[in-house]
Write a structure and sequence with these properties.
The protein is mainly alpha-helical. It has eight helices and two strands. It has a two-stranded antiparallel sheet with strand order 1-2. Helix 6 runs antiparallel to helix 7 and helix 7 packs antiparallel against helix 8.
């Protein structure tokens, strides 16, 4: 008996487009996921990495949030959106979500071979403080948190809003862990000074 991948894809796509109030937001995030995963092979050699058990501190909220962010939980519970945006609202939400994703991609491309999906020190790792990293210390998280919160609110489901919040908290926790790790590996004089100079997540705020 052969596995029908097209049927699975149809069910997944149908879940998003029937539960989310617009196909546009679903398409934006599915395209982002495909491109992000596809580019994950482009990274430098890892020199040192945070232990897997420690990483559960940020992985767990991101995993739970990601599950809630999909349409299937709300669909199984029979929950409906708290509000429904009109066409203008959806377009604005889509533009803002794409802006967040674009900012995240700018951060990833600017980081180049030093990017990693986990907390690691790459070979020849150094502090990057130009481009988006001159605005915030974690532009990838800034862009994704912004885009996900906008989309979660636009969809109006309790699950997507809660999922976006949990993912945001997980990314914030991961950012904090990265900073402790990199301060030790790259030196307080280098990375610590950078943290005291540039905001963490929100641009144009006081560094903390």
């Amino acid at each position: 008996m052969s596995f029908d991948f097209s049927k699975l894809l149809s069910v997944a796509w149908g879940g998003w487009t029937t539960t989310w109030p617009t196909q546009l937001l679903a398409l934006i995030w599915l395209a982002f996921l495909a491109s992000w995963v596809g580019a994950s092979f482009w990274q430098g050699q890892t020199k040192k990495q945070v232990m897997t058990l420690e990483s559960q501190r940020y992985r767990l909220p991101i995993l739970v949030g990601g599950i809630l962010y999909t349409p299937f939980i709300a669909e199984a519970m029979g929950w409906k959106p708290l509000w429904v945006l009109g066409n203008t609202g959806i377009i604005i939400a889509a533009v803002l979500s794409v802006a967040g994703i674009a900012f995240a991609w700018w951060g990833r491309l600017h980081l180049g071979k030093f990017w990693s999906n986990t907390i690691t020190q790459k070979e020849d790792h150094r502090v990057i403080d130009t481009g988006p990293y001159g605005l915030v210390r974690h532009p990838i998280y800034t862009g994704l948190i912004f885009g996900m919160l906008v989309t979660g609110v636009a969809i109006g489901l309790v699950t997507t809003i809660l999922g976006a919040i949990l993912i945001s908290l997980g990314m914030w926790q991961k950012g904090r862990m990265e900073e402790v790790f990199l301060s030790k590996e790259l030196g307080e004089h280098a990375y610590g000074a950078y943290c005291r100079r540039v905001p963490m997540i929100i641009p144009f705020t006081s560094p903390r």
